[in-house]
Structure prediction request, 858 residues.
Amino acid sequence: MTHRSSGTYWILAACLLISLALVTALTSPAVAQDKPRYGGELIFPVPSEPPSYDGHREETFGLIHPFAPFYNTLLRVAPTDPTGTKPHPDLAESWTISKDGLTYTFKLRRGVKFHDGSELTSKDVKATYDKIIFPPAGVGSTRKEQYAVVEVVEAPDPSTVRFRLKWPSAAFLASLSSPWNFIYKADLLAKDIHWFEKNVMGTGPFIFVEHVKGSHVVGKKNPNYWDKGKPYLDGFRALFVKDTAAQVAMIRGGRAHIQFRSFTSAHRDSLVAILKDKITVQESPWDCILLVAMNHDKKPFDDKRVRRALTLAIDRYAGSQALPKIAIVKEVAGVVVPGTPYATPPDELAKLAGYWKDINASRAEAKRLLREAGVPDGFSFTFKNRGIPMPYEPLAVWMIDQWRQIGLNVKQEVIEAAAYFASLRKGEHEVAMDFQCGYIVEPDLDLYKFVSVDKNPANYSRYKDSVLDALYLKQSRAVDLEERKKYIRAFEKRLLDEEAHYMMTLQWHRIVPHSSKVKGWQVTPSHYLNNTLDAVWLTE
Amino acid sequence: MGKYILKRFFLMFPTLLGVAVLTFFLLRIVPGDVVEARYAGGQGQFVDQKLMAMERAKLGLDQPLWKQFVDWMWGLARLDLGLSMWTGAPITQEIKLRFALSLQVAIMASIVATLLAIPLGIVAALKQDTWVDYAVRVFSIAGLATPSFWLGILMILGFLIIFRWLPPMVYTPFWVDPWQNLAQLIWPALAVGYRYSAVATRMTRSAMLEVLREDYIRTARAKGLWTKLILTRHALKNAMLPVVTVIGLEFAFLLGGLVVTEQVFNLNGLGLLFVEAIARRDYTLTQALVLLVSSAFIVVNFLMDVMYAWLDPRIRYR
Prediction:
């Protein structure tokens, strides 16, 4: 009996050991996948190339994708936040806001070194922001108007930076999280304020190696990076590849791991069908949208009944089902990206003109308004469109068909991309496709487009609306979240419904299919965010 | 002969001047400028007119047109092409980067085309109306009907599907790594060379057919000369006149005209730079590229004139 029991124990023990070994064997790859692995070179195509290296001056993501890894910013958008809205420490490790909301004080990390070995101090941050906000004559700062709220930037001691504001601002922390605001070295700026247009030197997780124009950018790991243990990659290689088919072929053929901007749904489907589990797809509503500008200086678009009719004719819900198959658009949206904190809930959105769920009722109302405006049989107009195929072309064709259904006869005129905005600026158009793309989801950025034309010449509907301007200022200065939401809703209602100054089409949809070897990267609504690559690693 | 060459050489300069004047003024008729292309097309919610005016002033675009023209011509006279309005880098540097690649592809494609076209054209002419002739004609007509970029796409897809391989996407100079260089450039050279050879094959065939019917060939045959000698010394040399024209002009075209093929194979060449420069309204770079490609055509024409004179002595005596 004792002998048998002992044998049973041995068998049980053996079974336990085998089970343990099996469990370990089965689970170890998963565990290994969760733990960042060091080494490897991330390769990614970039569809656009920047004219210079200066983030404060340029506008293209072609600068951000290959050059953001060389720099840090004061704050950044939390790299794991899928809404792309939450400010997160980068070079500033903490901050305080005065009770009146007029003073922001940031404590900088200690021991942060530039790639030349010198230490970062508040002097560098101040010099950087002075260049952005108060650029000397002859220095281009594309986004300085975003910081009109700033009175002065101070550096009271080497590890403290203080911003004094003219009025309280709800968007200020988000503004400081802008991916464009690379922190530059003060001494270099003092010697030559244009130095960073042609040279690269920051505090980022990667060190600049080379840029061969038209070909590639190479970065290598910064061994002295302040965030100990990061980056995981040995380096990266950004290849300038304009042709989308070539980019897809690179991912498919294993010549690249990821393209950070977006592919179309057809590209996604073909990659998934071929690469199966070797490809991972991340998707998000995209902070880009095509708008329709109706020129208030041209008849009959000076009549809000006509403008409302135009938006009421559009069946956005049906469009959001059909168009994603052929174009990079998807979500029905108001003025803020769906799924983000300030976005209008769908039920509330459905009350606005053009968003009604019953398209027949909507189009009947459109026809009634046209009758009331004195054009019962509809009318003809020219719709100017930008000569970029995706998604301008499919959206325009779809909209022209929608307008036809309320009796409007629309002729499309396609203008070459470089000449397009010059043409719109002259105000010769009747109705035109317009475009808005944000680098961070923030209402101050998303709504500025729609303030009166005397304040923003990029308002191609060319109206002046003091009520809308006042609402913009109110939402911008409302530091309470709910109060700000209230003003944003009022702004949206006036813009899209009551006055129908502008029309939104469908929100773009970002699709990033990448090699399953890539870990530590989170898609957000902006293709300008999450490109420092500090947390990215490769499984093999 | 020397006087003829000299005359042809000096005729190149007024042609180039005409090209320069036309390019300068035609470019400025097109709406939009480099500043507009740089700022208004992006997410420039905050870009104001003051900033754009400042950028225009920096580039000299606020100056009267005549002054811009005089400045540019003065630069040209000093062999200074100026700076790219888009990148601010010297234009010679921008072009130098891409020129080696474009020149190599053009040379390789010309070699592919010549190696295919001349033997095939001769064989087709000699075997006129036999199955060999029909096969060559089908091959060359297919080449004419197939766009190079499409053939390039098929090649890439074929490599991907059959071999799970893709040509390198980054240019490596031949002297750095010949294998890597050829692995990237041989495919566009084949794709372009095939179409190019189709034109030259048909030209060789028809020129040979014409020459083979000439009296002096009949006389040579009647004298009992070897067929090989008749073909190489008497027929081929005379049939080459139109073929040289086709090959020369195609070569000049390849230097700056491979826009779509360069996109398909991701080649950092002059064709792509050209299209980008126009799209960005980079006047200075576009002007320089037009001059470069025109110069290539003019020089090739000049060399062809010289070669004509060598191939056909009647020309130099006219």
In short: Chain B has a mean pLDDT of 88. Chain B touches chain A through 51 residues (CB under 8 Å). The two ends of chain B are 11 Å apart (CA to CA). Residues 149 and 260 of chain B are 6 Å apart (CA to CA).
